[in-house]
Amino acid sequence: GVMRQRGQECLVIAPAHVVENAFQIEMTTSDRAKYAAEVLEMFPGDISVLRFVNEDSSICRHASWSNKTNLNGLLEIEKQGELRTMLADGSIRITDVDIVGYDKYRNINVRPRNMADALSKGESGSPLYIANQFSGILLSVKDNIGNVIRQDALANTLSLFFKDSIQTSKQGAMPLNGA
Q1: Are strands 47-52 and 9-15 parallel, antiparallel or unpaired?
Q2: CA nearest 95: which of 64, 68, 66, 116?
């Protein structure tokens, strides 16, 4: 998933299917620190928001959520991107991907550029970056094609929860591993 700040609280946006039946959730941040988390809210479209149980106010210091107003323009120009998957040890694996399809409202479909880098279901929640800009999170994989919810669709789904307009946020996304 990705971290996003709401007021003084650091929250995590992740696919709901990853956490919906969990008895216990542990998040690993990019500095390899581990934190207990709990589901705060579930949204239609396989989206959940989690809260760190004993939050350290510095957890979100590297989070970067960005509401890009022209993702369609970016997708018209760029045909490649990268998925940044946080592994259990806190390291980040970067998978170069080709953009093989998208619609203007919700989905971006990606396939690994190197076919030896097969996508797997365990990578759900990995952020997609296109031209170094956060563009969405991986929700599912089928036949080595990843389905990514677009960042603008994600922002629209969560805008009332975060009490912001879709175009005013100046923070961005940081990969996070949930277990």
Answers
A1: antiparallel
A2: 116
The residue count for the chain: 179
Q: What's the DSSP call for residue 61?
A: G
Instruction: Tell me the C-alpha distance between 85 and 15, whole Å.
Output: 14
Q: Which amino acid is it at 128? A: L
Q: How does pLDDT run across 25-40, given as a tens digit for each residue?
A: 988 877 788 888 999 9
How is residue 122 written in tokens? 């365990």
From 161, 105, 154, 104, select the one nearest 128 (Cα to Cα).
Answer: 154
Q: How many CB atoms lie within 10 A of CB 69?
A: 9
Which stretch of DSSP H or E encloses residue 100?
A: strand 92-102
Structure tokens at 74: 């970016």
pLDDT digits (tens, 9 = 90+) for 93-120: 999 999 999 999 999 999 999 988 999 8
Contact 41, 165 (CB under 8 A): no
Question: The whole model's pTM is what?
Answer: 0.85
Question: Both tokens of residue 167?
Answer: 């175009």
